[in-house]
Design brief:
The longest helix is centred in the last third of the chain and has 39 residues. A hairpin with a 5-residue loop joins strand 7 and strand 8. It is elongated and about 90 Å long. It contains 3 helices and 18 strands. It has 254 residues and is an alpha+beta fold. The strands form 7 sheets. Strands 5, 6, 9, 13 and 16 form a 5-stranded antiparallel beta sheet that branches. It has 2 domains: 99 residues, no CATH class; 126 residues, no CATH class.
């Protein structure tokens, strides 16, 4: 049973380490526009006789009712709406409700909730994050071009990019029937594993959607995870010492 306890404590440490990594990333992105916090998913590991193939005949009245410990499942992210903050910048825009902006680097098309846009030296509307690599696409799947001459551009609540009284383009805002099929690929960007469709956007001009990662809650969870990790480490040490004592005593007795 000592070996069983060692494995349970080790599994608990592994899972808690994963949870701390997820929480740390969430806290690091607490100020990232449009960031969706990740959720560490943990499930109970069933003992072999319960999870083995059909027709498994081994049964033990005690061992089969023990827990197999815990293990990590693929992380999901929260689709909850982040807080919307006014910035006063004419190219900032926040999505209210569901939807993603469409961006491209010229070779791949991805999606984001980050509406912090700017215009590069080539006159293209791009994401401020990523060094201007990601170009914002319009509803014809082409980069939005802003002429140099004319008034400063601005984004309307209907997704239109306006310069003066004229409309330069309309943002391509899309929706996935199952938001969780939008997979994170880094840089606050998502890729679609299923078909996405254009949606009539509900936008808030001159504003940005904040991260839905709550700092105070995240810190409390980090403290809890740290204590759980320490507890498992102590249990692992105590069980290792008990095993060592048992072996040394048996050796002396022999």
């Amino acid at each position: 049973m000592s070996t069983y306890g060692l494995w349970l404590s080790a599994a608990g440490m592994k899972v808690t380490d994963h949870r701390q990594t997820v929480l740390t990333n969430n806290l690091a992105n607490a100020e990232t526009a449009g960031f969706k916090q990740d959720l560490a998913i943990v499930t109970q590991r069933r003992v072999e006789s319960r999870s083995g193939p059909a027709g498994w005949t081994f049964a033990h009245p005690v061992l089969d009712n023990l827990s197999g410990g815990v293990h990590v499942r693929p992380a999901h992210y929260s689709t909850a709406q982040g807080p919307i903050h006014a910035t006063g910048r004419p190219l900032d825009v926040a999505i209210q409700g569901e939807g993603f902006f469409t961006v491209s680097d010229g070779s791949v098309t991805l999606y984001t909730r980050d509406g912090n846009f700017t215009v590069n030296l080539a006159g293209e509307l791009v994401l401020s994050a990523g060094g201007g690599r990601w170009k914002v696409l319009d509803d014809t799947q082409n980069p939005v071009i802003v002429p140099e001459d004319g008034e400063p551009p601005r984004v309307g609540s209907d997704g239109s990019i306006r310069q003066g009284a004229g409309v330069l383009a309309n943002l391509n805002v899309v929706h996935a029937e199952q938001p969780q099929t939008m997979r994170k690929v880094g840089e606050n960007l998502f890729e679609a594993s299923t078909e996405v469709k254009p949606v009539r956007p509900q936008l808030v001009p001159e504003s940005l959607e904040g991260s839905n990662s709550d700092v105070m809650s995240g810190l409390a969870q980090m403290i809890e995870a740290s204590r759980v990790y320490e507890m498992n480490a102590n249990l692992l040490r105590l069980q290792d010492e008990a095993t060592g004592h048992a072996i040394s005593r048996v050796g002396r007795a022999a």
